[in-house]
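User: I'm putting together a teaching handout on how sequence relates to shape, and I'd like one worked example. Could you take MFS transporter from Streptomyces vastus, show the sequence you're using, and then write out its predicted structure as tokens right after it?

Assistant: Happy to. First the sequence, then the structure tokens directly below it.
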Amino acid sequence: MPGRAGEALATAAREAFTHGMQAAAIAATVLLLGAAVLASVTLRRVRVRETEATECE
């Protein structure tokens, strides 16, 4: 599209893309932080058994 209409369309498309990318980045950040908290809470309850190391001959 030539002229002002084309410029307006291109600007609107860039802004929509940027807005969508920001929303996706925020959603991914929230999801990863939630997963980190869940892993931290879950792994806090795990007990590690100490076993004697045996050498392979």
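A couple of points you could highlight for students: Residues 1-35 form one domain. The CA atoms of residues 13 and 19 lie 10 Å apart.
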